[in-house]
Write a structure and sequence with these properties.
Blueprint (H helix, E strand, L loop, with lengths): L17 E5 L5 E4 L1 H7 L3 H4 L4 H4 E2 L2 H13 L3 E10 L4 E10 L7 E7 L1 H47 L6 H22 L8 E3 L1 H15 L5 E5 L7 E3 L1 H22 L5 E14 L2 E13 L29 H11 L3 E7 L2 E10 L12
Helix pairs in contact: 5-6, 5-9, 7-8, 8-9
Length: 366
């Protein structure tokens, strides 16, 4: 059974859902404003183009259209990924409906699922982060006391040894105890009460950039792509520096270990409008991206990289705490951190809500 709609598309212009009209040959004749915004394409750019040229490699959509045409009844495809000709990917649910219009025979209605999926992922990560944080805090407290006793006993033993050459062994115990003590201190760092004050994100990034250049000045290029009109916000400057630095240092280590030619890290800032974080809607958020052209995060740990003690480094220097701490610090700012990675392109994205809209232009040259 087909569904009739008015001969003009005027009634579709005010819909919140994204609508595309096709001919019986599956060519685009109309996109409503919601569809143009969602997919970043205007009707004039794709009119008369086959839908397969608008959405690339989307067999599910093509099968849904074929099914609707064959059965002459609406068909819905739930939660699948769709990629536009502009290489923008979205998670959507699509309803395909045969219609009776002189110029169009198929109506595609898209509902974006990215927001719902991101919120669900954010909630899962928050619950996991809180559980990990509590576990590690208790574990650190339990380890610190016997660790202090172990170190003290090694110092006393060192004074009693008859041969100075034997002190080499007690020094190993003392140094390893100190290393473990430093690890325990890092586990407890997130529980310091944040010191919130007016913060400029570019001051944070410039501090990180200067540290990176000081640590590896000749090996890696650190590029800036700043939106200098971003507003200031309320945050703990030192914790934000540490969060970004932990991510950037991971990138540096990956670039150096893989000997990536033309190794590059990019720090990019943009504004994000109407963002929902922790179930709260913010008019403005700061979007920070830390990108590198290294080998990428191993596929077997990409979904676990923010868990404590998970590391992709094969050497003994990787504690697996850097990203877990970064997530904790960003969560304390009611923000969100995520990672997408493939060989040659790894991007960590941080969203920080802005409560105030005071604009301060940062005088930073690219």
């Amino acid at each position: 059974m087909t569904q009739k709609i008015p001969a003009t598309a005027t009634g579709l212009e005010n819909l919140a859902t994204s609508v595309i009209l096709l001919t019986d040959a599956k060519a685009v004749v109309y996109m409503n404003p919601s569809a143009e915004v969602l997919f970043g394409i205007s009707t004039t750019q794709v009119v008369n183009s086959p839908i397969t040229e608008v959405f690339l490699h989307c067999e599910l959509l093509d099968l849904a259209i074929e099914h609707a045409i064959k059965t002459r009844s609406p068909f819905r495809e739930h939660e699948f990924a769709i990629t536009t000709v502009r290489q923008q990917s979205h998670a959507v649910t699509c309803t395909v409906t045969p219609i009776e219009m002189p110029e169009a025979k198929i109506l595609l209605e898209f509902q974006q699922m990215d927001q719902q999926l991101r919120i669900a992922k954010e909630e899962r990560m928050l619950i996991q982060q809180q559980a990990n944080s509590e576990l590690l805090r208790n574990l650190a407290h339990e380890i610190r006391n016997p660790l202090g006793g172990l170190r003290g006993a090694a110092q006393l033993l060192e004074h009693e040894l008859p041969q100075p050459s034997l002190r080499e062994y007690t020094q190993v115990i003392i140094k390893e105890a100190d290393r473990l003590q430093g690890l325990m201190d890092r586990l407890l760092v997130p529980h310091r009460v944040p010191k919130y004050e007016t913060t400029n994100i570019h001051e944070v990034l410039e501090r990180v950039r200067s540290l990176l250049l000081a640590e590896s000045p000749n090996n890696i290029k650190v590029q800036r792509d700043y939106d200098t009109s971003l507003p200031e916000f309320i945050g703990d400057r030192e914790k934000l520096i540490q969060a970004v630095l932990n991510i950037a240092r991971n990138a540096v280590q990956a670039l150096l270990s893989s000997k990536t030619p033309a190794a590059k890290i990019t720090l990019k800032t943009r504004s994000e409008r109407q963002v929902t974080l922790s179930r709260k809607r913010y008019r403005v958020a700061i979007k920070l991206e830390i990108m590198d052209n290294g080998p990428g995060v191993p596929a077997d740990i990409i979904d676990k990289i923010f868990y404590p003690l998970v590391t992709g480094r094969q050497d003994e220097g990787g504690s697996g705490l850097g990203l877990a701490l970064a997530q904790t610090f960003i969560t304390q700012h009611h923000g969100m951190i995520d990672c997408k990675s493939q060989p040659g392109n790894t991007c960590f994205t941080i969203l920080l809500p802005v409560e105030s809209t005071v604009i301060k232009h940062a005088l930073i040259e690219p």
